[in-house]
Amino acid sequence: MKRRELICTEADLSQELPLARAYIKGQGFHSFIISCCTGPYGPTHDHLTLLDTVEHALAQMMEISKKLANTIMNERQAAGFAFESKTNPIDDAFCQFFAIFTAADSAAARSAVLSDEDPEIKGAFRQPWVRYLGDNDSKTNCKTVVAELSAFLDFHQMHPDKERRISEPKQLASCMTAFFRLLANGVKEIGTDAEYERHRVALESMQIDICGRHYAGFDFSSKSAENEEPGELLPIHYEDVVGNKEYIEAGLRLARDVAGFD
């Protein structure tokens, strides 16, 4: 029997990325994020990378909710989610919460790479708008997430404590990391509630790979090898190299000869 799986690749997001970009532009978020803090010559590479991170998250929200909904529909007469004969509002809400969880989790990881320090976030968003995400379609949720992210960044940009205000792209990245972690934690709390227990159990029995990130239900488990961040490079000295001694010594002589003409 084929193992049940939920797989999403970067190629699967090709149709959703232009929509995500349109939502970002439509709400002026691209201009807002640059105005939060500018480099000496305006937008920096970090600004563009963070915009790409949000774009990718929105595309993921749309694609994963569709994929999981299709899985539920296909399994109605089989195993897994076949405890009812058709989809219902609970199914739809669960699909939205899981899609937002994986998108926010991935966005937090991408944003953290640009931050000076990875903020340790144990809290969660518990405002009404988070629970309402289960009542909306993915397109409406994309607009909601962008609006709430803008409000979150705007608050920190004008924070009463001057030391906590956003003044450079790395601080912007740190704030975005915090937002997406709080969002991921918030929807995870809802998605793992007893109301969705049968959905959660069915989900946990699946192999889940979202753009190279593996999940066990609402828990991140690992990254694919090709998606691992390169580790810190350590200096290599002559005595560290094993084998081809004569070849290395010849290379060193050549290097010294060339250096002598500089």
Primary descriptors:
alpha+beta; 4 strands; 262 residues; 9 helices; 4-stranded mixed beta sheet
Summed up, what is this model?
The chain has nine helices and four strands, in the order E-H-H-H-H-H-H-H-H-E-E-E-H. With 262 residues, it is of the alpha+beta class.
What does this structure look like?
It is a single chain. The protein is α+β, with helices and mostly antiparallel strands and 262 residues long. The protein has one domain (5-227). Helices cover 55% and strands 6% of the residues. The protein is built from nine helices and four strands. Strands 1-2-3-4 form a four-stranded mixed β-sheet, with helices on one face. Strand 2 (207-210) and strand 3 (213-216) form a beta hairpin. Helix 3 (45-74) packs antiparallel against helix 4 (89-112) and helix 3 (45-74) packs antiparallel against helix 6 (138-157). The longest helix has 30 residues, at 45-74. The radius of gyration is 23 Å and the shape is globular. Residues 227-233 have low confidence and may be disordered.
